[in-house]
Amino acid sequence: MQEGRDLTQHVNIFNQIIIDLTQLDVKIEDEDKAMILLCSLPSSYEHMVTTLTYGKETIKVEEIIATLLAHNQRRQNTGESSHADGLYVKGNHDRGRKSENEGSGRRNSRSKSRGKKTFRCYKCKKPRHMKGDCSKWKKESDDKHDASSKTVNVVQNENLDCSDGDMLSISTTQFTNAWILDSECSYHITPNKDWFSTYMFVNSGSVYLGDDRCCNIVGIGEFKIKVYDGTVRTLCDVGHIPDLKKNLVSLSTLHKNGLIPKADEDRETIRIVKCALTVMKGKITVGNIYKLLGSTVVGGAHSVESYDDNTNLWHMRLGHLSEREMVELHKRNLLHGVKSCKLDFCEFCVLGK
C-alpha cells in the first residue's frame, strides 16, 4: 500500500485477492494472511503494527482488519488523513537535498524495510521473519520427526494362511539373552534350544513376524527362569523358533493362566501377579520395551521327545481345552495331526482351576 491511499480500499483489495486464491484451492494460514496484510502497510502504521503483533502467540486476520478499520475511522473523524508522512516529504523538499521523485523512492524503500523490522517470529521472538521461515521452529519439527521414527514397534495382526500366531518385531540389537514382556505375542517363544529344561519336537505351528517372514515352531518345552527375588519359576509351553532373534514372554498367555500384569506407580515397572503374589517383574528400557528382571537357568534339556501326535499342541492352541471336548473335535476330524486325545499333566490347567 502506498502512502496516501485509502486504507478501506486497500483492505477490500486484499480480501478480494484472498477470495480469488481460495477459489483456486490455494490455502493460506490465517496467521500468514495477517502477516501479509501488515507487511503491506506503509511506515506510517509502524507503531500500529508493533502494537498488534508484540507479545502475542497468534494473530487472526479478522482481528487485524477490524482494528485497522476502526483506527482509520477514528483518524478520519478527527480530520487526519489516512497517511502521516507529509512532514517527512516536506522536510526533504525544503532542504533541497533530493528531488521529489528521489525522496519518494527513498521513502518507499524505507517503508518496506521499516515494516519488516517490526514483525517478530512468534516462535523465537526475533525480528525480520515469520514462523514459517523460522530456523528454530524447523529444527524442532525435524527433531520430533526423527525421534518418532528412530524406534518402531511393528505388529502385524492379519489373518494369513501361514500364520498361527502374531509377535512383536523389535527394532533393536539389544536383548539377545534377555526376555521381553510382549503384549502382542501369541506364545512364549525363543530361538535358544539349549535353554530348555524339557523339549518336545513338533512338526506344525508358525508365527508371522513384522518383516513378513513366516517362521515355523519346531519344538515346545519348558524354561526355568530365576526372577528378581531369586526364586526359580518355570515357563511352560515355550515355542522354539530358530529364526527368531529375541526371547518373548507372552503377556496374553500369562493372563489366560491367571497371571495379571500390573503397572507400578513409578510407570517404569510392571509386575506379574497371581492373587497377592508377585511372580515376575519387568523394567522399561530403551524404546519403551519391558525387559523381564531375571535370568535363564541354563542346564540343558532333561528330556526330549519326538513324535507326530499334536494333542498337546492343539490343547494349547484351543486355550487349554479339556480332554473330553478335544475328543469331540477329534471325532469330527477337526484336529489335524492328532492321533490320540490323551493329555499330559498341564500345570496351567491346574492353576486355572
TrEMBL record:
Residues 107-129 have a biased composition (Basic residues). Residues 74-150 are annotated as: Disordered. PANTHER family: OS08G0421700 PROTEIN, PBF68 PROTEIN. Residues 91-105, 130-148 have a biased composition (Basic and acidic residues). GO terms for molecular function: nucleic acid binding; zinc ion binding. Residues 179-258 form the Retrovirus-related Pol polyprotein from transposon TNT 1-94-like beta-barrel domain. Residues 288-353 form the GAG-pre-integrase domain. This is CCHC-type domain-containing protein.
